[in-house]
Every structure is written in structure tokens, then in C-alpha cells.
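hey can u check if this looks right to u? its 167 residues, i copy pasted from the old doc so theres a chance i mangled smth
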Amino acid sequence: MNKAFTKEEDGSSPQRLPDLPISSHPNHVTPRGLRLLQERKAALDAEVTRLRENRDYLPDPYPLSVAERDLRYVEARLASAILVEPPQTPPEHVSFGATVEVEDEDGRKAKYTIVGEDEAAPDQGLITHISPLARALLEAKVGDIVEWPKPTGIVELEVLSISFDAA
């Protein structure tokens, strides 16, 4: 077909971006994680509305496409969320949502909270339940030594305490 007869994209309507990949793991969330997803959805709803209302004045439709894609992702994550409430009794072992204080072989202490994938922030001690560290800690009890497989080798951690934040 002659190029003269094909419609070229004029940039006036946003392109639908491919959806962000969704994890195949169960979407467990803490109460905090669920609140964060709900807040993110509300912010994205507002952003999409604002961008659609100002579509005629946008020099580039790309920000709207990104906001719509991100909103689809958050809506999918909310739809598949499995809320895991903290236990009502003192914990006997590490489970989802627990904050665990550990000490390594060199005496360095650290705290990690096991959370859902969307809530994870390793630099803040929030680790996803599917991470090697979380898998090493799950089901451990105070006083247990767990082996954390790292690329540089196995690190032994002693579980010092287990706690849960109130919902």
C-alpha cells in the first residue's frame, strides 16, 4: 500500500502502553501495604483525570499513557490482594508481616519486615516474602540460626526477636 494512504499517528491520542508485568506469586499484603496500594490508586485516578481534562493542552500524550498503564497495574494488584492480618497472640515463629531482629556472625544487628512485593523497600528493611532472606527467616523461632544464601556465600543469622506492628 502506498504510504500516502496510511494514517500516521498525529500524537493527539495517547498510545496504550503495554501493561506492566504482574508477579505470578500470591499477592499477599500487610494492612499497611493495602493502604499504600489504595492511596496509590487514588493518586493515579486523580492524575489520569487531570491529564484527560487537559489533554488538548498537553504537548505530549505520553504522561497520560504512563498514568493509565500504572493505574491498570495498581487496580490489578488491588483486585488480587490477599490481606494478611498480624496475629492476635505473641508470635512463636516468623511469618508474613513479621519484623525480625537478627544478628550475623560478626555481631551486626539488623531488622527486617517481611512484606508483599509492592511494599518492599530493601533499603528501609522491608523485604518481600519471596526474597531469599525472607525464605530463610520464615518459620524460624527466637534463638534459631538460619542460613541466608547470598551471591557472596552463606550468611548465618541468629533470630533475636519477632514482632508484629498493630494493624
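The chain has two domains: 26-83, 99-163.
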